[in-house]
Specification:
about 500 residues; alpha/beta; 7-stranded parallel sheet; 19 helices; 17 strands; about 40% helix
């Protein structure tokens, strides 16, 4: 699914008006009807009062039509036109006579006392903003936010004060419990800085012309089921274990063998034909007992070390379909040296996570040694150690994309909507997953899944998108059965089979 800019979304409306054809007023009716229908479905046939605050633009026009449609269905509705600046838009003005009970706010002192708990509908500004809300209009936003404890706030299209394509972190902004947006997710909705402002996002269809969507160019995409099903490859009935590759997982150290177990199990569950786990000597019996399906190479030391540098080991490295390295290996100097030697010896795409990334953060010259098209999976702090700090999440997203292009790597920045930057400049956001996955070992499972997919011959981009989706979906399926609170990383691995079945439906 494409993520379009605010300017492109306005162009999509205009294209639909010209080519359907449909009037702008009728398009506004569609949008408002979808919003009103969602509210009736969500809040029931006998909800508390609706308090609707309308701005002077087309977002306010949406609010006026919503007020009329709810009132026509017999709901208790009160609506205000907030005269923040200038004259109303043409469609806004055209809808005002159809709601004769409309009240007016021309200064902050006129903001009403909302005595009875109800539902506040924020239709002040929408996507039209390109600068912070100032003056008494900002005061209106603060007044609305002051009602959060007693009222449910629903924003139309965007929480007022938020900008779609730039950071508005330090600007006045409505904090909505729900945001009803149309046809396309806004980039702002997918970044952590706006999570508390956006609330739960509901995507409503209003009939935007599909030709515009097809031709629109954008770097940003939200992965969806249709995309995943085009990536997934069912197995050939005449295949054998060699068909799906031999993966090497380098993980674990004394006290961190759990990371190695999780990554290895996930690699097998993801479908790798053969998996060898390279672990310290202290983990040999653990690995052979807990994951009998995996082969095992053991270090003589308690961590991944120069022992791997022995010539026969380095000569063997290219024989593996791919390598996943990093979970629990530590950052000792001897480990860093071994990682350097491995990167120099292995030239196919691989997966680097956790301590492998922390080592590279300490020795940035190693970035140039990573095989092209490899996958890096940093969490935000690891990303910061690798590439530096940014002032906000929009800047971080742009930095993420630049680094992926510069180094010709795939970089998955973990989060609620994990952002996956590609060497061609495109960025994909993964929508699967839940807060229960914020648990120790979840990232180790992801490393194993990605390694397993690369081993099977998936191209790095396909492995990245499918792996992130499977990881999150398995977590969602586990949470449905076990709860988010009780979820542990092993559950994610256990539910990978159900995630595959879901894709195959």
């Amino acid at each position: 699914m494409k993520i379009l800019s605010a300017q492109q979304i306005r162009a999509a409306d205009a294209y639909t008006i010209r080519h359907e054809p449909v009037s702008s007023l009728l398009l506004m009716e569609r949008a408002a009807a979808e919003c009103a229908g969602w509210m009736v479905h969500t809040f029931g046939e006998t909800p508390p009062p609706y308090y609707i605050f309308c701005g002077m633009g087309n977002n306010g026009g949406d609010g006026l039509v919503i007020a009329r449609k709810l009132q026509e269905q017999g709901f208790n509705v009160q609506a205000w036109l907030v005269h923040t600046a200038g004259e109303p838009s043409e469609d806004n003005a055209a809808n005002q006579p159809y709601y004769p009970e409309l009240m007016h706010i021309r200064e902050l002192a006129e903001f009403p006392a909302l005595e009875e708990p109800g539902i506040i509908v924020d239709a002040l500004f929408g996507t039209g903003l390109n600068r912070p809300v100032e003056g008494w209009a900002a005061g209106v936003i603060h007044k609305i936010n002051d009602q959060q404890q007693r009222h449910t706030i629903v924003s139309i299209d965007m929480p007022s004060g938020m900008m779609a394509d730039e950071s508005s972190l330090h600007f006045p902004c409505v904090h909505a419990r729900y945001t009803l947006t149309f046809e396309f997710y806004k980039l702002a909705f997918l970044l952590p800085e706006n999570a508390e402002r956006t609330g739960k996002t509901e995507l409503l269809k209003i009939g935007i012309h599909p030709d515009y969507t097809a031709q629109a160019q954008t770097a940003y995409h939200l992965t969806d089921t249709a995309t995943i099903r085009t990536i997934y490859r069912p197995r050939d009935p005449f295949s054998h274990k060699g068909t799906y590759g031999h993966a090497l997982v380098i993980a674990g150290s004394f006290g961190k063998m759990g990371a190695a177990l999780l990554a290895t199990r996930a690699c097998l569950r993801a479908g790798a034909g053969l998996v060898t786990a390279h672990v310290p000597r202290c983990g040999y019996e653990i690995m052979q007992t807990a994951v009998p399906e995996a082969m095992c190479l053991a270090e003589e030391q308690a961590h991944f070390s120069a022992h791997f540098d022995e010539p026969f080991r380095l000569r063997q490295a290219p024989d593996y379909a791919t390598i996943g390295i990093g979970p629990g290996i530590g950052t000792e100097n001897v480990t860093a040296k071994a990682l350097e030697r491995l990167l120099q010896a292995y030239h196919k795409p691989m997966v680097l996570d956790a301590d492998a990334l922390n080592i590279i953060g300490k020795y940035p010259a190693l970035l140039a040694e990573i095989p092209k098209d490899s996958i890096l999976t940093p969490h935000p702090k690891e990303f910061e150690r690798l590439f530096g700090k940014t002032d906000n999440h929009f800047e971080r997203l742009r930095l993420l994309s630049r680094q992926a292009v510069e180094w010709q790597l795939y970089i998955l920045l973990k989060g609620r909507y994990s952002a996956m930057a590609c060497p061609d400049g495109s960025v994909y956001f993964n929508p699967t997953g839940n807060p229960g996955m914020a648990t120790a070992g979840s990232g180790d499972a992801l490393t194993g899944i990605l390694t397993g997919l690369l081993s099977q011959g998936y191209a790095p981009k396909a492995a990245l998108l499918l792996g992130a989706w499977l990881h999150g979906l398995a977590g969602d399926l586990a949470a449905e059965d076990l709860s988010e609170e009780a979820l542990v990383a092993e559950d994610i691995i256990h539910y990978l089979g159900q995630a595959y079945l879901d894709i195959r439906k």
